[in-house]
Design goal:
Layout (H helix, E strand, L loop, with lengths): L28 E4 L15 H5 L2 H7 L3 E4 L3 E2 L11 E5 L6 H13 L3 E6 L9 H6 L12 E2 L26 E4 L4 E4 L14 H17 L3 E4 L22 H5 L19 H13 L6 E5 L5 H8 L8 E3 L20 H14 L7 E2 L9 H5 L5 H16 L4 E5 L20 H13 L5 H11 L40 H4 L6 H14 L1 H5 L1 E5 L6 E8 L2 E8 L5 E2 L2 H6 L9 E4 L3 H9 L2 E2 L4 E5 L1
Parallel strand pairs: 1-2, 1-13, 2-5, 5-9, 9-10, 10-11, 12-13
Antiparallel strand pairs: 3-4, 6-8, 7-8, 14-15, 15-16, 16-20, 17-19, 18-20
Helix pairs in contact: 5-7, 8-9, 11-15, 12-13
The structure holds 1-O-alpha-D-glucopyranosyl-D-fructose.
Family: Belongs to the glycosyl hydrolase 13 family.
Pfam families: Alpha-amylase
Keywords: Glycosidase, Hydrolase
Length: 606
């Protein structure tokens, strides 16, 4: 079913405030991490031709668009989020012709493709950066170059401009002997931050974006786009430069302070996003822009996604995926459901008039939500809780994002040894926290990695139960770049595609609902029983059409809390169960007893 044939939300129904309603307001986007999706040339890495061979599977699932994580030319220091040529495809994924072919074949299926735009930083191997190392070149001011701290010998420990630490370990400042100065890298030292204060930088980015849109891509997911405006003072100084107190006082347990407060949602962000909108998207139709919104509050999300302000269509927010981390990624704790409910409700509340929400629990940076918040103790509970989490997310107002493998209930990797990991964030964090700062011991850090390493969501897609799960051929020389999860025999697409009670079929049902039911896509959200620690309940409504969503998000039976029980007092009509992860009569028997079994979930028309 193509977007053209699919019914869009009628214009008399309010979505984000735009008229007509955007195509994506009742669409579902599928994120592909190309390196792990499908290998077609038996080198152990996924590629573009592999993706093309799986379009029929995605069409069966019913998704409307693909978010393609980076496939541009890259040294692969951060798996492609370090781009050395924005206008070429990295040979490991294929060629520009392969990209053109993928675009035309996806469009033939009615599936749009949005590319991953990584422009807060480039690779240090990008021609722009290499030219910038000459302080007399026209590119000299394209990055954040700063001299050594006053009174310090350049290149010696402690001579960095301030105490900021890189997200992937070490100082956020790397000394370049050729230029004799340091450059800022919020992430790895091979990812120098671009200087967006420089209009030449901005226009080079816009030119590249137009080049891709003219080539047929349907929009962009914008990597850490809310970091592009840095907080500098009138002299252009970054906070803490010259070793200013602000940086030294705030050094955390690993010996560094964070650069993030000085770039998240910076002073010129709205200006840059509005300029990008004018220079790139004015006059274009049918596209989608979704920004990664670190540091963006639900209220700022409403402002940025309000079509009135002509910035972005939507953003990925982070409050909800941080509720169990207390700001410390490696010390993730047991989920307290009321905290998740509160974070989601705040995001929904903020967009009840204008603006829009993205809906996600999974992506290539997050551990698998099923392992993190579901129940994988038995196959039955794994399937049931996978469906419950999917229903919980997809019944909110906004555009859902399905991350590859989520639709078949894939789980965390189950790695036990450091050498099994590939993600530079995980490996560097291990060494910095265990060997250098000594703030965590090895065993505890291995437990942290098993729970929250990004590699947990990057193991190869599990297509079937063959040696490498159908991700690559049986030929032993093609060991996948990251080990296949051992549970591929029991969790794979082949086993589920045509089974009506599978996780795959449940996702398909949820996607069909969003396409066909305007209350699911655009109905107003109202939270219920927000303090209950087991039941996640809310209503969605347009006029007198009301849906009640109830999920027992726990591994034990739970009583219906007051508000939810009241709305279900007379619920005995199976024909009004819109969707459930159990037999509809059975789940109504649970409702009649006012007690939902572990992970039971339903949507009831009230
Ligand atoms: O992610 C930025 C980001 O917020 C995460 O990397 C986060 O900082 C990290 O996972 C904390 O655990 C984007 C991309 O999604 C990510 O894959 C890249 O590594 C990063 O930017 C740099 O481009």
């Amino acid at each position: 079913m193509t977007t053209k044939q699919r019914q869009l939300i009628p214009d008399d129904v309010h979505t984000n405030g735009a008229t007509p309603n955007p195509w994506w307001s009742n669409a579902v986007v599928y994120q592909i991490y190309p390196r792990s999706f499908q290998d077609s040339d038996n080198d152990g890495f996924g590629d573009l031709k592999g993706i093309a061979s799986r379009l029929e599977y995605l069409a069966q699932l019913g998704i409307d668009a693909i978010w393609l994580s980076p496939v541009y030319r890259s040294p692969q220091d951060d798996n492609g989020y370090d781009i050395s040529d924005y206008r070429d495809i990295d040979p490991m994924f294929g060629t520009l012709d392969d990209m053109d072919m993928l675009l035309s074949e996806a469009h033939a299926f009615g599936i749009k493709i949005i590319m991953d735009l990584v422009v807060n930083h480039t690779s240090d191997e990008h021609a722009w950066f290499q030219a910038s190392r000459d302080r007399n070149s026209e590119y000299a001011d394209w990055y954040w170059w700063r001299p050594a701290r006053k009174g310090c010998e350049p290149g010696t420990p402690g001579a960095e401009p301030n105490r900021w630490g890189g997200t992937f370990g070490g100082s956020a400042w790397q000394y370049d002997p050729q230029r004799g100065e340091y450059y800022l890298h919020t992430f790895s030292k091979k990812q120098p931050d671009l200087n967006w204060e420089n209009p030449s930088v901005r226009h080079a980015v816009y030119d590249m974006m137009n080049w891709w849109l003219d080539r047929g891509v349907d929009g962009f997911r914008m990597d850490v786009i809310t970091l592009i405006s840095k907080r500098i003072d009138e002299q252009g100084k970054l906070p803490g430069e010259d070793g200013g107190a602000i940086a030294d006082e705030e050094a955390g347990e690993e010996g560094y302070s964070s650069p993030w407060p000085f770039s998240m949602d910076g002073p010129r962000l709205d200006e840059y996003l509005q300029e990008m909108r004018r220079e790139v998207f004015a006059g274009r139709k049918g596209y989608l822009t979704v920004g990664e919104g670190q540091g963006i509050s639900p209220q700022r999300n409403e402002y940025i996604t309000d079509p009135e302000h002509e910035e972005l269509d939507m953003l990925f927010l982070f409050d909800h995926v941080g509720v169990d981390q207390n700001g410390a990624k490696w010390n993730t704790e047991q989920l307290e459901l009321p905290k998740l409910k509160a974070a989601m409700a705040e995001q929904q509340e903020a967009v009840k008039h204008n603006g829009w929400a993205s809906l996600y629990f999974n992506n290539h940076d997050q551990p698998r939500a099923l392992s993190r918040w579901g129940d994988t103790s038995t196959p039955e509970m794994r399937v049931k809780s996978a469906k419950a989490l999917a229903l919980m997310l997809h019944m909110h107002k906004g555009t859902p994002y399905v991350y590859q493998g989520e639709e078949i209930g894939m789980t965390n990797a189950g790695f036990t040894k450091l050498e099994q990991y590939r993600d530079l964030e995980s490996i560097n964090a291990y060494h910095q926290r265990v060997d250098e700062a000594r703030v965590q011991d090895g065993a505890s850090m291995m437990d942290s990695l098993a729970r929250v390493s990004r590699d947990n969501s990057r193991t190869p897609m599990q297509w079937d139960d063959s040696t490498y799960a159908g991700f690559t051929s049986e030929n032993s020389s093609n060991t996948p770049w990251l080990a296949v999860n051992k549970n591929k025999d029991t969790i794979n697409a082949a086993d589920q595609r045509d089974r009506p009670d599978s996780v795959f079929s449940f996702y398909k049902e949820l996607i069909d609902l969003r396409h066909g039911n305007v209350v699911v896509a655009a109905g107003d959200f109202a939270a219920l029983d927000v303090q209950d620690e087991h039941i996640y309940a809310f209503t969605r409504s347009i006029g007198d059409q009301r849906l009640l969503v109830v999920v027992n998000a726990s591994s034990q039976a739970a009583s219906l809390p007051e508000q939810t029980a009241a709305l279900l007092a007379d619920a005995d009509d199976a024909s009004r169960v819109l969707i459930a992860n159990e037999d509809h009569q059975n789940i109504l028997r649970q409702v009649a007893r006012r007690k939902l079994e572990a992970w039971s979930a339903l949507v009831y028309e009230i």
